[in-house]
Specification:
There is one protein chain. The mean pLDDT is 92. 29% of the residues lie in helices and 29% in strands. Helix 4 runs antiparallel to helix 5 (130-143). Helix 6 links the parallel strand 6 and strand 7 (179-184). The two termini are 21 Å apart. The protein has 278 residues and is of the alpha/beta class. It has a 6-stranded mixed β-sheet with strand order 5-6-7-3-8-9, sandwiched between helices. A 3-stranded antiparallel β-sheet has the order 2-1-4. The protein has helices spanning 41-49, 71-74, 91-98, 107-117, 130-143, 160-170, 211-217, 258-267, 269-274; strands at residues 2-12, 15-25, 29-34, 56-61, 77-80, 148-152, 179-184, 196-201, 204-210, 218-223, 234-238, 241-247. The protein has 2 domains: 2-202, 3-Layer(aba) Sandwich (Rossmann fold), CATH 3.40.50.300; 212-274, no CATH class. The chain binds adenosine-5'-triphosphate. Adenosine-5'-triphosphate (ATP) binds at residues 11, 17, 35, 37-43, 185.
């Protein structure tokens, strides 16, 4: 569905943002796009929906070049930016005006999501807090039923109960012909939510693998001491001793601590990547 071939991009010459990025993404999955602040996550998402144009290389999405912004492409893609300004209208007016751009828009689902988020359906957008407005926009994004859904830092601005609601709403919404990419630097928020991880670092793809593969290759465990047979690749102190990452030499997939994984990858790049030989 998405094919990036040697994509490069910069805002100012000499300051690369994306360099030689090659990537294939398939539908039916939720991808987590991870990276430190400024790694280029938003820029990559903008390249996928035609908001910025590659300086070199090719981007193909759903058989289109996003930069051409053809209506048949735009009605199948939705990006929810990290921050936005809401128009001075009611929720109902938002649906009446904007839903028309998305032929598969599911109005009933929209109101169901709003209910799950506990946002009143008769609210005036400008009277909502940023977090509430974000929940309206997440509901709108999911209800568009577009083929490619890009959520840039979707949990930013949500309080802890809202993050729980977010997880509930997202779980089970994706259909087989849809692809969702969620970017974040708050890696913990995506625990148990994504199928596949892509990590951007130093303008390039550092890591690209499914969550299943990670849980087969790495073992996340709690240990009282660090004196076991196998020296951990990475460890962090916890209340009960240490959480460690070691190679998974068992035949049982490990449950993943997403934040530990990201920290471990950033800290011990070579050792971690060596376990994923592709
Ligand atoms: N409009 C712009 N003009 C110039 N430079 C920009 C612009 N937008 C982003 N950049 C720069 O491009 C780089 C990548 O930014 P981008 O927003 O894509 O990163 P990000 O990974 O999404 O960051 P964050 O996690 O902080 O949202 C950063 O160094 C940023 O300063």
């Amino acid at each position: 569905m998405i094919s990036l071939n040697r994509l490069s991009f910069y805002y100012r010459k000499g300051n690369p943002v994306l360099e030689d990025v090659t990537l294939q993404l398939a539908p039916g999955r939720i991808y987590g796009l991870l990276g430190r602040n400024g790694a280029g996550k938003s820029s990559l998402m903008h390249a996928l929906c035609g908001l910025l144009f590659p300086k070199a290389g090719e981007v193909q999405v759903l058989g289109f070049k996003p930069g051409e912004r053809k209506p048949a492409f735009l009605q199948q893609v939705f990006i929810l930016p990290e921050t936005f300004q809401v128009p001075n209208i009611t929720v109902d007016q938002l649906i009446a005006v904007d839903a028309a751009f998305y032929p598969a828009f599911d109005k009933q689902a929209f109101y169901q999501y709003l209910e799950q988020f506990e946002v009143p359906a008769d609210a005036h957008l400008s009277s909502l807090s940023f977090g509430q407005a974000k929940k309206v926009m997440i509901s709108f994004a999911l209800a568009t039923r577009v083929k490619l859904l890009l959520l840039d830092e979707p949990t930013n601005g949500l309080d802890i109960p809202s993050k729980r609601q977010f997880r509930k709403v997202i779980a089970g919404t994706l259909q087989d012909d849809q692809l969702m990419i969620m970017s974040t630097h708050q890696v913990k928020d995506l625990d148990n939510l994504i199928d596949h991880i892509i990590v951007l670092d130093e303008h390039r793809i550092l890591f690209n693998a499914s969550v299943d593969e990670i849980s087969e290759r790495l073992l996340f465990s709690q240990q009282m001491t660090l004196t076991g047979d196998v020296k951990p690749i990475y460890h962090e102190g916890s209340l009960k001793g240490y959480i460690t990452i070691t190679p998974n030499n068992t035949s049982v997939p490990s449950s993943i601590d997403m934040e530990m994984f990201f920290n471990g990858l950033m800290s011990e790049k070579q050792q971690m990547l060596a376990l994923f030989n592709h």
